[in-house]
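Tokens in:
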């Protein structure tokens, strides 16, 4: 079993038979767990394989969408439509060029975000910012590096962001709003001595980024994080 990341108390549980039946065989990630229990590290493993050239962009997208949709009943149907609009994965690979080769800087993150949002570049059906920032997170996050990192921005996260995070809307965020949030999260992570994605996880758990103090790159004190994430809600 994969070890959890900061604040990740349980895996996402899905019915893999429904997912496999609804998706193209070539899009299924070879190393994905067979148990139906999916941790973030399982998706990161597919992202690592993608960057190493042993997994395709479609396999990475499938892994992210399974984790992202979880047990939601329409997940396989929507994922099939997203994959069907990019049958060779070329649009997604183009969008991820800037974030998959090396540790991406802000310009690379901006470019990838804009490509995935633009129908003339790499936008795909049923893949709005709430989902494609998940793709950017898994494809572009570099653990142990710190600084501005690609993070998930969906309605759950946005609903708990403070004004100073620079996100004014509940959906359909611009690239500049996303980057403002990433800078804010990077500063919070630096001040708390944690990984930037620990800030996102804390927000997801209903807090304003109160996170357990662990060194960047260290394994998290998950029980301590769980105690803390609700204290300033």
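Residues out:
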């Amino acid at each position: 079993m994969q070890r959890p990341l900061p604040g990740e108390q349980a895996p996402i549980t899905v019915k893999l038979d429904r997912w496999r039946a609804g998706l193209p065989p070539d899009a299924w990630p070879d190393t994905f767990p067979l148990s139906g229990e999916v941790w973030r590290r399982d998706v990161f493993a597919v992202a690592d394989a993608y960057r190493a050239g042993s997994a395709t962009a479609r396999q990475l997208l499938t892994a992210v969408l399974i984790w992202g949709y979880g047990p939601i009943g329409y997940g396989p149907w929507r994922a099939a439509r997203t994959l069907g609009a990019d049958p060779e994965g070329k649009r997604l690979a183009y969008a991820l060029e800037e974030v998959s080769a090396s540790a991406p800087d802000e310009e690379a993150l901006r470019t990838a975000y804009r490509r995935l949002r633009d129908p003339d570049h790499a936008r795909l059906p049923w893949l709005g910012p709430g989902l494609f920032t998940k793709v950017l997170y898994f494809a572009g996050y570099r653990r142990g590096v710190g600084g501005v990192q690609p993070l998930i921005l969906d309605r759950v996260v946005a609903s708990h962001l403070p004004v100073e995070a620079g996100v004014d809307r509940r959906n359909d965020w611009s690239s500049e709003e996303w980057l403002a949030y990433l800078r804010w999260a990077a500063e919070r992570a630096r001040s708390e001595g944690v990984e930037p994605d620990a800030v996102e996880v804390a927000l997801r758990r209903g807090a304003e980024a109160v996170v357990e103090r662990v060194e960047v790159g260290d394994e998290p004190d998950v029980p301590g994080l769980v105690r803390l994430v609700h204290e300033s809600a």
